[in-house]
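Ticket #4471: structure export looks truncated?
Reporter: QA, pipeline team
Priority: medium

Steps to reproduce: submit the single chain below to the structure queue and open the exported record.
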Amino acid sequence: MANEAAAGSRVRTGAIRQPRRIPRQQRGRERFEKILAVATQLIEAKGSDALKMSEIVEKADLSFGALYQYFPDRSSIFATLAERFNEEGRACVVAALAEATDAATLRAALCRIADEYHAFFRSEPVMRDIWFATQADRLLQEIDADDMEFHAQALLSVLEQVYPDRPKPSLLALARLVMQLLAAAVRYAAALSEDEGRAAIALYKKMLPADIGELVAE
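Actual output as written to the record:
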């Protein structure tokens, strides 16, 4: 089963900017969620590049001071949304990998993760937009790197159980590459039409070896 403690072991390369203040009172939480809801609507309508703090202020009926009290800039909004979506994605990965006990079920788990991630990003255009914007934003790059390492560590814990005789450094390298390739396939598929995307994911799954442990020497 995936070891969530190990999955969170990566040391971050930089400080991740979070909302300036996480509200505790109900009124504050409602305002916090309203800001995120308005930002989500604006991203859905215009894309992340067009998101403006002034527009959030107007549509959420807030002052700039109230907005900056929770989110100092656009990146902090994107980061909060990305972290929330990542939590859902991590739950998907952990649940799928929990069923992997041998080479065959591990391959099936990876196929399931690819299918579910593709469906997830199809259903969440905001996250898809933020994901595509990752390369242009250092904050999102750091969040994405942390998320990828979580997935790699989760896969590593399964690989160590399925292939106990393989050296851990080799299994870790394999886990990181497998999850990077899976993410790349999903990103590529999400950029295509729905039918083309499904075909791309189907092709990716065909490319997965029956026993990925054979890629690592004993």
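Status: closed, not a bug. The export was complete when the record was re-opened. Leaving a note from the reviewer for reference: The chain is about 70% helix and 0% strand.
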